[in-house]
Queue: 3 jobs
Job 1
Amino acid sequence: MSGEADAQTTSETPDADSAQHQIVEEFRFFDDWADRYRYIIDLGRDLEQLPEAERTDARLIRGCQSRVWLAETAVDGRIRFQAATDAAIVAGLIALVLRVYDRRTPAEIQSTKPWFVEKIGLQDHLSPTRSNGLHAMLGKIQDIARSAG
């Protein structure tokens, strides 16, 4: 993790609800799902990757078709997430999810429902296995928050 990213203050980071509104607004710019998928893949390219050494079996999320690793660190009462995957579109999905949940308190995470998924139509445009993986990732984030809270 870069020191610069860790130094980010909460005033510079939108709250979880605002982050979801921003995601919805960004997706309104695209006319079709081919463009939206390209955008999701582009988001994944910018995902801060979990270092190779930390991609352990203990961090693998069960229920994902692709291999997805999720690690968390407590920083000043907030949970900092890092993830990695072996699939481009999944990396983009992770990037979207982390925009909502990264650097939040356990209470914020637990009280934040991922309504952006329905609002942008993701549930209707993901394969069943990718949808299951997205729900597994969201569930794991909630489990981490419950354990930390």
Job 2
Amino acid sequence: MKLIYSIHKYDVFMFTWLNNVSIHATLVRLCRIVSRTGDGLLYVLLAAWFYWDQGGADPLLKTLILAFAIERPVYFVLKNGFKRNRPQQALRDFRSVITPSDHFSFPSGHTSAAFMVATLLGYFFPSLMIGLYLWATLVGFSRVVLGVHFPTDTLVGIGLGIGVAIFSLNYILL
């Protein structure tokens, strides 16, 4: 329990510091845009494009579908199992910039999906990997700046997304 308390204390400190820095207002404008790229529409359009371009047998499309079929239920079970309050509910006198789509914060679904997609696309298009991971990192960062996640929510989202992507690649390609 002492370890969990220490992690939470550090998490709250980092979250509070980031949301009180002088450039927070400037960050919010950029983070609203970046966060929206992780809302899901981009992933649907990406899958439709791969289907249109390559057909249903495309290994990237098959891997994306499998990965989302695994990641979304695992994310849902974790989020509703841990039931960690979002910063707005956990911290007195704090209001998030946006209204989240659900009640709990752990893990970050936006971050998980972004890192999963970045890992899968980076595998098939290695020259894009650095840019894809930069985008995924910004998605996770944006969720903290917008006040809907603590930093560890996004860290666990990174692990979940990359883990599911690697599993899916091994399952489809081996």
Job 3
Amino acid sequence: MDDIKGKIAQLEDYIMKKCLWQFNSRAWDRKDQNENILKISTLLLCEEHFIPETPADRCYWVEAVSLVDAFKNRYPWISALNKTEKKELMEALKERIDFLTITGSLNKELTDPLY
């Protein structure tokens, strides 16, 4: 379990330092971004197809492609994981990013209905 926590920490660190999409100003935006970018990233890591059908899909897809490229270049261990391990890792990463950017965030603007 410590091994997966260490791997999640590496990926989380990259996202928190390098990805601007995590800074959306509303909780629902952050939820959509986290869900879609990390879902598509998982598909790409597992070499499964994703065809963007909407403008939003294309935005998420571009971010996912960039993220997967960075993960593969910076963390070569990710390519050694099998599909199941990659999916479990990415799901745990999503939960962690959701906590950091939404549920555990102290930013009151995320839920302010007038903002």
